[in-house]
Amino acid sequence: MNRWHYVKRLLPLIAAMTILLAGCGQADTSTLIPQGPVAQKQYDLMKLSISIMIGVVVIVFALAIYVLIRYRRRPGQTNIPVQVEGNHKLEILWTVIPILLLVVLAIPTVRTTFDLAKDYSKEPDAVKVKVTAHQFWWEFDYPELGIKTAQDLIIPVGKKVQIELVSADVLHSFWVPSLGGKMDTNVGEGNINKMFLIADKEGVYKGKCAELCGASHAYMDFKVQSVQEQDFKAWVSSMKAGAALPADQELKDVFTQKCLSCHAVGDQGVQFAPNLTGIGSRETIAGILANNPENIAKWIHDPQKVKPGNLMPKVDLTEEQITGISEYLSGLKSSIRQ
Ligand code: HEC
Ligand SMILES: [Cu+2]
């Protein structure tokens, strides 16, 4: 079989890959479509380094192909061509050029690295958030504002959000591709990683745990939602206003006994599991299910089926109680997505 036959057979695959991969970009999840200055700087570095690498590859390959053709062994040739080993000019050339390329790459890389490592914890205007990663959910604590939430990180547009990262159990990694990251969350208060994010526009940006952390690592999703400043303030007030327990006395007792032993609603309960204040307004349930009463019920029915290995057990409840609690939770709105 001649060699072009292989190339012809590969062509459709290469064409299909090109089309498929070109379709990857989505403004809410792609590092290639940055939505804020941090992501933009990271993207600029990627562009610079990839351009340099492409330049090197093209030139080296062109030279190699030229040499292969130009100096190939011709029919009847028996002598060895002139050798250039130890040629000073060439050796200096191919030492100096890579050094120059590395300098060109190093200057913006070092500058950006220091820029992005700035700590705005003392800046009054920055919003401070302490992020705690858990198997398999995200806790967002706003110490200066006195609120705690989970799964959806709400931030004001255009403001610096200074983030402290810790883990409650194993190593995780905080990554919002279109805004910035990724950075590990370490175990122990002595080992806090810091970073900041800024969102240019209003929007919902998908986040991921980027470090294999257990059975449901792939489901450890979260969102960053950026809203206008006044909407952010309204959200903070609505979260601080707390939330009522179920109106029905029986449901209230069941919920208090069986759920508030781990969860919190308003100022009631325990902070072991996601704080459920405002859960009715979140994008998702448990970070992955669309937010509606049916999915809340599905979650309560069997949390292990949705997210294998997570720390919420199957709670013994009647069908009626599950429906009642799901509707109650669905009604726990914050000022976002009423
Ligand atoms: C032993 C502790 C525990 C108990 C008891 C418990 N949960 Fe959970 N719950 C968790 C944990 C841990 C998670 C986070 C799971 C994950 O996403 O990995 C969770 C998640 C949830 C979520 C999703 C939260 C979110 O942020 O999207 C809902 C809703 C929920 N629980 C409702 C309930 C209800 C209702 C009850 C009572 C019937 C209950 N839970 C009892 C530990 C508990
Ligand atoms: Cu994780």
TrEMBL record:
Q: Where is the signal peptide?
A: 1-27
Quickly give the catalysed reaction.
4 Fe(II)-[cytochrome c] + O2 + 8 H(+)(in) = 4 Fe(III)-[cytochrome c] + 2 H2O + 4 H(+)(out)
* InterPro entries for this protein: CcO_II (IPR045187), CcO_II-like_C (IPR002429), Copper_CuA (IPR001505), Cupredoxin (IPR008972), CuRO_CcO_Caa3_II (IPR034236), Cyt_c-like_dom (IPR009056), Cyt_c-like_dom_sf (IPR036909), Cyt_c_oxidase_su2 (IPR014222)
Localization recorded for this chain is: Cell membrane; Membrane
Q: How does it sit in the membrane?
A: Multi-pass membrane protein
Q: Which domain of life is it from?
A: Bacteria
Q: Cytochrome c domain location, by residue? A: 246-333
The UniProt record lists the Cytochrome oxidase subunit II transmembrane region profile domain at 23-120
Name the UniProt key words of this record, in alphabetical order.
Copper, Electron transport, Heme, Iron, Membrane, Metal-binding, Respiratory chain, Signal, Translocase, Transmembrane, Transmembrane helix, Transport
Q: What Gene3D superfamilies does the record tag this protein with?
A: 1.10.287.90, Cupredoxins - blue copper proteins (2.60.40.420)
As cofactor, the record names: Cu cation
Q: Which residues cross the membrane?
A: 50-69, 90-110
Q: Cofactor comment in the record?
A: Binds a copper A center.
Q: Using the UniProt record, name the top-level EC class of this enzyme in a single word.
A: translocase
Q: Cytochrome oxidase subunit II copper A binding domain spans which residues?
A: 124-238
Q: What is its EC number?
A: 7.1.1.9
Q: Which family does it belong to?
A: Belongs to the cytochrome c oxidase subunit 2 family.
Alphabetical list of PANTHER family matching this protein: CYTOCHROME C OXIDASE SUBUNIT 2, CYTOCHROME C OXIDASE, SUBUNIT II
Q: What does this protein do?
A: Subunits I and II form the functional core of the enzyme complex. Electrons originating in cytochrome c are transferred via heme a and Cu(A) to the binuclear center formed by heme a3 and Cu(B).
Name recorded for this polypeptide: Cytochrome c oxidase subunit 2
Species: Paenibacillus gansuensis
- Per the record, the gene is coxB
